[in-house]
């Protein structure tokens, strides 16, 4: 006799039936991961992994989610979100094996956090607040949580694994909350000019390490300018990357029409084609 929902026989072990049940939801995925990590019957590659080796995949999957959203690729987004969910399940399984936490404890912790951070929705506080007031309340709650974790310093708890531009903005936001910030955007622009001059001087007179340091200082201030202009620097740079890719593809297409490759063209010729690419797509590129 066959179970119509799973296609498995009625004598199939419960765990096996769960794995092949398309309607079993998160429990199915948890069991799949448990089986993949089983030291006797699991996948050798999955068994060998640890938190550190999986972390880069977690970051990569998050970026692929962001990429699908940016491209409006809604048909792909479902799969990318599944890949990202798998990463959480993977870490949860490894945490359970080591006795650190379980998937259920992770769910409980984030649920408790969301309830605690939204007293205007789940508690007695009024919802009659502006978005800015709610953001300020959110930051106060997070500050209390950091204090409970003995994160006393203003910059404590800003994850070191964040993309550098994102971390720079978060560090600057933290410092700005205690008054350490330029009050005017023009002052940030002046600082950019100063850092650019120092980079030019370092390039002429100093070591490669000094040049790299000055370049980092310039990028850090550029991130600060993004804050003052209310721009996400990561989003802005991704858009610039997409623009560059689009325009360079235009150059390749035009040269390819003549049976040529960019390496066969002069810089002046490619510059002219670049200008043509800008003129061809004015709306997205301006």
Automatic annotation (TrEMBL):
Belongs to the nucleoside triphosphate pyrophosphohydrolase family. It comes from the Bacteria. One of its GO terms (biological process) is dGTP catabolic process. It catalyses: ATP + H2O = AMP + diphosphate + H(+). GO terms for molecular function: ATP diphosphatase activity. Signal peptide: none annotated. It comes from Poseidonocella sedimentorum. This is Nucleoside triphosphate pyrophosphohydrolase.
